[in-house]
Amino acid sequence: MGQRIHFVVDPQGWCCMGLIIFVWLYNTIFIPKVILFPHYEEGNISVVAVLCYYFCSLFCIASLFRASVADPGKLPENPNIPVTELEHWELCNKCNMMRPKRSHHCSRCGHCVRRMDHHCPWINNCVGEDNHWLFLQLCFYTQILSSYTLILDFCHYYYFLPLKKENW
Questions:
Q1: Is residue 133 included in any domain, yes or no?
Q2: Which residue, 9, 20, 17, is CA-closest to 121?
Q3: What is the pLDDT of residue 167?
Q4: What is the 3-state secondary structure (H, E, C) of 59-91?
Q5: Per-residue pLDDT tens over the stretch 59-99
Q6: 111 falls within a domain
């Protein structure tokens, strides 16, 4: 996996990243304040539930930043192509560089990426050979955080609020 940092200058990508960070900050502040902390003080949920929410949130934003700045597998300017593998390479008609057969040119980034899957505006980066696993981690942690938030919302509206009304 590549260790180089990769930034893409794309206004649409920066807007999507800004929207994601805004939603993440809103949920990291709003959900605990409305659901977790009041029910923790009442003794309905444990400190483990609060810590799990913050750990899921931290893993989600960390995987977002890792996927967005990781090198997707950008091809170098002058690749050293072994003579035996020359038949597995082709010329890119957009950037006039030699690239492996499964590589594609990204019009947003302006370069060829090894085993490119797609350009994701939500991470403002291509998903390629070197950051595909980081993108899958981001999808996984986002799913975990979303599911946990939905479970907390369900418990809040269908379990904890009727519990308060019965105590009144």
A1: yes
A2: 17
A3: 54
A4: HHHHHHHHHHHECCCECCCCCCCCHHHHHHEEE
A5: 999 999 999 888 888 887 777 777 777 778 888 888 888 88
A6: no
For the segment 144-151, the average pLDDT, to the nearest whole number, is 88
With 0-12 CB in 10 A as exposed, 13-18 as middle and 19+ as buried, what is 115?
A: middle
Q: How far apart are CA 114 and CA 146, in angstroms?
A: 31
What is the spatial distance between Cα 47 and Cα 39, in angstroms, rounded to a whole number? 10
Q: Which of 37, 44, 119, 32 lies closest to 74, judged by CA?
A: 119
The model's pTM:
0.78
**92 tagged catalytic:** no
Split into its structural domains, the chain has a count of: 1
Q: Domain span at residue 124?
A: 11-75+119-160
Q: Which residues face 98 on adjacent strands?
A: 91
Are the C-beta atoms of 69 and 8 separated by less than 8 Å? no
Check 60, 106, 109, 120 and give the catalytic one: 120
Residue type for position 58: L
Domain contains 68:
yes
Q: Is residue 29 in a domain?
A: yes
Token readout for 15 is 């807007």
